[in-house]
Amino acid sequence: MKKNDIELLSPAGNLEKLKIAIAYGADAVYGGVSHFSLRIRAGKEFSFETFKEGIDYAHARGKKVYATINGFPFNSQIELLKKHIIKMAELEPDAFIVAAPGVVKLCKELAPQIPIHLSTQANVLNYLDAQVFWDMGVKRIIAAREISLKDVKEIKKHLPEMEIEIFVHGSMCFAYSGRCLVSAVQMGRVPNRGSCANDCRFEYTLYAANEDHSTLFRLEEEPGVGTYIFNSKDMNLVSHMQEILDSGSVDSVKIEGRTKSPYYAAVTAHAYREAIDDYFENSFDANKYQKELHTTKNRGFTDAYLIHRPFDKSDTQNHEYALSKGSYEVSGLVTEDEKHFMCKYKTYPGDEIEIFAPIGAKISECDNEIGKIYKKDDGKYYVSFKKILTDTNKELDSVHSGNTNKIQLPSSLPYLTMLRVKNEEEELCSK
């Protein structure tokens, strides 16, 4: 396998995150306008106009954009769906991501010029199902998260021309590749139409009842086990990228997370970009990538099902907490003029703030009246401010999130560079 044969595919929940994913190493991104997408809340971040802007932005940089039309429509929605397919095709995405066989057929009829990628919601695990969709004109399958690498190889052996995409990072669902009704039953929000309420992440109190004499008592929690009984850990396969790439059967590795933060979009793209590039340069270092990925908020990590089968281990669930934890906060994001940043957390004069820059960024050291940019022995660059100055030269004692003033940098930094600091709560917990 050649370096250009493997695609790194990142989530694009909105236009800013699309740009960030590309800046930090993604070859392609996926997202959509809310209609008929399985991330309705993320889809609302895009209008048809901004999604087209994102497509043009990506294409200008030699990157691809895949549009999600992977919901499961009711009969009453089919005419609206037809109009949506035609309108999305006019934006010229590089592929449609589709789940339902009927929608595959409809896309082929209404927009034959747009390649079809089969959503993971179609649950393809074997070459028989893959063959059916290949015969329907599907160019790529996004395999079910439950698939093994052995089965990926088998599909590729039977269908060498079909592209195979696999998830390597992000949230895992308690149900079979998202086929869940818990949220629909409890909250009226239908997961398979994009509005999952994540009921599986809640902590539940368990009771035992006897209907004959109406006895009801609460079950006591076993210390250290907890009652997050449906809560899956997040997938993290970066340590297995060597095995994945060695297989020669995977065409695209996909990161989940359209509703996650811009920082998540940056770090995951950056880590997996480095892992892929280092693999081809024979300098693969799993610890380096894991260290970065652990700075993002997560529910704990598991390598899920691709390498090991579920019955081989029991570490796929998080029984302790549902709230994500991360070791860093984004302090600021560098603006398009590359001379300022927008505050996302808080910044005081004298703070040492790490610079987390896009792939291939060039950073110059400096020391002036505003502050200094310097490189430490750990090989990373940092910035420290002597003054907090707005773009109108107003001096502030400090700047906090919510402040809409652009803040001057000591020297230019690349657009979309992130300034980050250790999470104070995490630091206290480690002491």
From TrEMBL:
Question: PANTHER family recorded for this chain?
Answer: PEPTIDASE U32 FAMILY (PTHR30217), TRNA HYDROXYLATION PROTEIN P (PTHR30217:SF6)
Endpoints of the signal sequence: none
Keyword S-adenosyl-L-methionine, does the record have it? no
GO: which molecular function terms? Answer: peptidase activity
The protein here is known as Collagenase-like protease
The organism named in the record is: Malaciobacter halophilus
Q: Which GO terms describe its biological process?
A: proteolysis
- Keyword Hydrolase on entry: yes
Give the family this protein belongs to, as stated in its UniProt record.
Belongs to the peptidase U32 family.
Supply the Pfam families for this chain.
Answer: Peptidase_U32
Name the UniProt key words of this record, in alphabetical order.
Hydrolase, Protease
PROSITE patterns named among the record's database cross-references: PEPTIDASE_U32
